[in-house]
Amino acid sequence: MTLRLAIAAFAAALTLAPVSAGAMTVEPTGRIELSKMMGRWYEVARVPNSLQNGCVAGASDWTPQPQGFAVVQSCRKQTTSGPLKTWKAKATVSDPRTNARLKMSFFGGVVSQDYVVVEHRPEQGWLVLATANGKYLWLMSQKPVLPAPIKTQALSRIRQLGFDVGRLEFPIPRT
User: Cα 31–35–40 angle (5° rounding)?
Assistant: First the structure.
């Protein structure tokens, strides 16, 4: 029980550092085709957060389940050959109109968070996922490395959406 409380407190601390200067409302930019969200997504950029401190080579594996999705997030500590760190989440669509609003629960339901897919470019293999309150953001790619011109385009889109791209960190990718 003490471990669960510690994990809950740790996860709650993730909500303290905003990605933007002020509070913002995060909105999806369109309807998401859920089948295009499935599979492995590699982390290209993120807003620093306590849970992923020291993480490199991050990825998220999305698998359909009868009531939503299973999401397994993983990274390596410090180097691409460092110890593997994983955490699991359950995700459900909270807005069937757009499929772009998701509720994810972590640590056996102890912590839950609302997320929004604010941009999804399946033809280019990338998406931007943010917490609904705009505090955290991830640029994810279907390939371990996003080609430079597409990465530049994605970062430009993140800026257009009102996020401070200067706060992003770019962890070492998987190879």
Answer: 115
Residue 47 near residue 168 (C-beta atoms within 8 A): yes
Question: For the CA atoms of 7, 12, 15, 16, what is the dihedral angle to 10 degrees?
Answer: -100
Residue indicated by tokens 């943010």: 130
Indicate the pTM of the whole model: 0.85
Tens of pLDDT, residue by residue over 6-35, are: 333 334 333 333 444 445 778 898 899 999
Quick check: helix, strand or coil at residue 37? Answer: helix
Torsion angles phi and psi, residue 60, rounded to 5: -130, 130
Widest CA span of the chain, in angstroms? 48
Helix (H), strand (E) at residue 85: strand 84-93
Distance in angstroms between the alpha carbons of the first and the last residue of the chain: 38
**Is the Cβ–Cβ distance between 68 and 90 less than 8 Å?**
yes
pLDDT digits (tens, 9 = 90+) for 98-143: 999 999 999 888 889 999 999 999 999 999 999 999 999 999 999 9
